[in-house]
Amino acid sequence: MTSEEILKNAEAWLADFFDTDTRNKVQELINNDPEELKERFYKNLEFGTGGMRGTMGVGTNRINKYTLGKNTQGLSNYIKKSFPDKKHKVVIAYDCRHNSDTLAKIVANVFSANGIKVFLFSGLRPTPELSFAVKHLECQCGIVLTASHNPPEYNGYKVYWQDGGQIVPPQDHEIINEIESLSFEDINFKAIENNIQYIDKDVDEAFINASVENGSFNAQEKDNFSIVFTALHGTSITVLPEVLKRAGYKNVHLVEEQAVPNGDFPTVKSPNPEEPEALAMALKKAAEVNADMVIGTDPDSDRLGIAVRDNEGKMVLLNGNQTMILMTRFLLDKWKKENRINGNQYIASTIVSTPMMKVLARNYQVEYKEALTGFKWIAKMIKDFPMQEFIGGGEESFGYMVGDFVRDKDAVTSSLLACEIAADAKAKGSSFYNDLLKCYEDFGLYREKLISLTKQGISGANEIKQMMVGLRENPIKEIGGSKVQFLEDYQSSMRTNLLTGDKDTLAIPSSNVLIYYTEDGTKIAARPSGTEPKIKFYFSVQGTLDHAKNYDKEIAKLDEKIDRIIKELALN
């Protein structure tokens, strides 16, 4: 976009339709800060992997009442076209971020102004409860105002459809086209308050009961199991302590300093349980009370981080792949013991997650389904295959879903499941940690690592684009001393055998992802983030574990191999 076009976009925001404060801020940018003006107006904020996220502020490339209002006006039009003969209903939730409550009310106002019945949570609630509420209240659509684990200056807008899952093609493109056909002046902000109904305890009760029903497996000796829980200033504090209590856990210790919702996230650099630093206060508390497990959830409570004690009694943080593997094996064991596996079941994960999920499926004789990054694709599987039973599934980015009563990653029910696994193991003289090592003994030792390179702004976006172009046009031939056998390009939907030249079509929707597979089982994926200015590289290597006592030695070998590959690819 040229400088003239950017200026024209900005000047359109000086019209009387926009409020005085917005007009003043835009004029100040025009007068004094051309670079910032460019960043804010060079494009429209786009829907990505997890909805729309961005920094808050004025401009078409920012989260504000007008960009979200336009989204909502377009969505209102789309709902009416899609369901012409039904009473139109939506449900809206929001997290702890600055302006989330205000933006949620603005979104509710626009829906209501368009004659749509709105169920609006009276206070902040977890994202999985919103997903649950869509089906529970028989709505056509759900919205949650959240930026998940992004920094404090961010906010976001996730759209859910009537099945409780996030929108996917072709609906997402149809909705985007509807939005883009509008001008900002088409937004109807004039609320019809009678169309807005505030909700809270009744839906909470239904969600809590469903979480306990789906995540509890009658683990023994819960009185002897101690948990430290941190909400990281987010939404899980509204329901998770009650879920654990009803499931029979009495020794739950809150990290009080992080129990109060706060959009500044004052005690952490990042409210992301993927980051070890985020759980530092919880680990300190665990040492004080001699806890068996630490649980931490992100601000909208869809991601779960845990720490457990190793065989020396030291608290160790587990990654998303590790918790996913043990949770899935536990569920598969339960289904197998109950004679419920008959060939009609499946588990699911994503293309950048551990290959070990496929090994689990094969050993338990269930189908393994693989999707693009993002739980919306796993939710789509459930919708697309209603005659099959979904047992559980997850992704490397600390997300898991137990059954299909929620159609998004669910840190509430998954936290309970993690406690059930650990309490059950302790009652049998084992531990969560030892049960994980047993998985590695039985199915092979896998090690994963993620590297994220942040590239801000227009220049950063161009740099990420060129990195992907280079990886496509000049494929890597050898990684870690092993020849690259396959290259999967999800943008062209093509899998190429680089050793023979043979090509096959990938039966997964198009996406800007590249995955390399070597002859020795090493897997490397490159993917620009759909929600942050980052390019992500996912590494997976594999070996064997003959005995749990050799775990540290064998895992060190795999870590060293990953580090060599990262250095080889000049990503450090």
TrEMBL record:
<dbReference type="InterPro" id="IPR016066">
    <property type="entry name" value="A-D-PHexomutase_CS"/>
</dbReference>
<comment type="similarity">
    <text>Belongs to the phosphohexose mutase family.</text>
</comment>
<dbReference type="Pfam" id="PF02879">
    <property type="entry name" value="PGM_PMM_II"/>
</dbReference>
<keyword id="KW-0479">Metal-binding</keyword>
<keyword id="KW-0413">Isomerase</keyword>
<feature type="domain" description="Alpha-D-phosphohexomutase alpha/beta/alpha">
    <location>
        <begin position="206"/>
        <end position="313"/>
    </location>
</feature>
<dbReference type="InterPro" id="IPR036900">
    <property type="entry name" value="A-D-PHexomutase_C_sf"/>
</dbReference>
<dbReference type="Pfam" id="PF02878">
    <property type="entry name" value="PGM_PMM_I"/>
</dbReference>
<dbReference type="InterPro" id="IPR005843">
    <property type="entry name" value="A-D-PHexomutase_C"/>
</dbReference>
<dbReference type="InterPro" id="IPR005845">
    <property type="entry name" value="A-D-PHexomutase_a/b/a-II"/>
</dbReference>
<keyword id="KW-0597">Phosphoprotein</keyword>
<protein>
    <submittedName>
        <fullName>Phospho-sugar mutase</fullName>
    </submittedName>
</protein>
<dbReference type="Pfam" id="PF00408">
    <property type="entry name" value="PGM_PMM_IV"/>
</dbReference>
<keyword id="KW-0460">Magnesium</keyword>
<feature type="domain" description="Alpha-D-phosphohexomutase alpha/beta/alpha">
    <location>
        <begin position="319"/>
        <end position="439"/>
    </location>
</feature>
<dbReference type="InterPro" id="IPR016055">
    <property type="entry name" value="A-D-PHexomutase_a/b/a-I/II/III"/>
</dbReference>
<dbReference type="InterPro" id="IPR005841">
    <property type="entry name" value="Alpha-D-phosphohexomutase_SF"/>
</dbReference>
<dbReference type="Pfam" id="PF02880">
    <property type="entry name" value="PGM_PMM_III"/>
</dbReference>
<feature type="domain" description="Alpha-D-phosphohexomutase alpha/beta/alpha">
    <location>
        <begin position="46"/>
        <end position="184"/>
    </location>
</feature>
<feature type="domain" description="Alpha-D-phosphohexomutase C-terminal">
    <location>
        <begin position="511"/>
        <end position="557"/>
    </location>
</feature>
<dbReference type="InterPro" id="IPR005844">
    <property type="entry name" value="A-D-PHexomutase_a/b/a-I"/>
</dbReference>
<dbReference type="InterPro" id="IPR005846">
    <property type="entry name" value="A-D-PHexomutase_a/b/a-III"/>
</dbReference>
